[in-house]
Amino acid sequence: MMQINPADTTGYMILGFVVILLPILIYLMSMVIRFRNLNHELGMLEEIEV
Fold first, then answer.
1. Distance from C-alpha of 37 to C-alpha of 19, rounded to nearest angstrom
2. Phi and psi at residue 23, to the nearest 5°
3. Alpha carbons 2 and 38: distance in angstroms, whole number
4. What is the end-to-end Cα distance of the chain in Å, rounded?
5. Per the confidence metrics, is the pTM higher than 0.85?
């Protein structure tokens, strides 16, 4: 009697996680960079104001 094993789709699962998590990480990094730039510009404006 032959036993049929389920297909090994581990690679597809890992690829799916990468496809989903990579854009999220890129977006979060973009937000951190924007926040740093905003704080830098705010500091410059406060120096000009004084």
1. 28
2. -65, -35
3. 65
4. 86
5. no
C-alpha span between 8 and 3 (Å, rounded): 15
26 has pLDDT over 90: yes
Q: What's the one-letter identity of residue 8?
A: D
Residue 50 has pLDDT above 80, yes or no: no
Sign for the pseudo-dihedral over CA of 12, 14, 17, 18: negative
Residue type, 31: M
Amino acid 21 reads L
Structure tokens at 16: 């799916």
